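Sequence only, no structure available. Ideas?
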Amino acid sequence: MTIKMETIFCTPELEEQIDAFLAQDQDFVQAEEAFYESAREIAQLAGFERYDRFECRLGVYLNRLTNLHYLFGLGLRQEVLRALNPYSSSRSSFGSGGITGRSPSSWSK
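Reply:
I predicted one. C-alpha cells follow.
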C-alpha cells in the first residue's frame, strides 16, 4: 500500500489552521491579492489554457525550490550544532549527511 506524505500531514483541520495563520499576515494578504489580480490580467491576454499550464509549471518549480531550501537549511543546522559540540557522540537520525544523506559540500555536485 502506497501512502502519500501529503495525506498524513495535510488534513482539513491543518489546512484551516494554516489559512487562519496566513490571513493574519497583512503582507501575505496584499501579495496574494496582487498576484491574483496579475494572474487574471495575464490569463486574459495569453488565454486561460496557456496561463494555466504556466501556473502549474511555476507551482511545481517553486515547490521544489522551497523544499530544497528547507532541506539545505536542515543540513546547515545540523552542521552548526556539530560544530558547536564537536565532542558529542550523539548523531541525528539523519546520519552524517543530514536529511539528504549527503554532506553540504557535495550538494552542488
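Residues 91-105 have pLDDT under 50 and may be disordered.
Hope that gets you unstuck.
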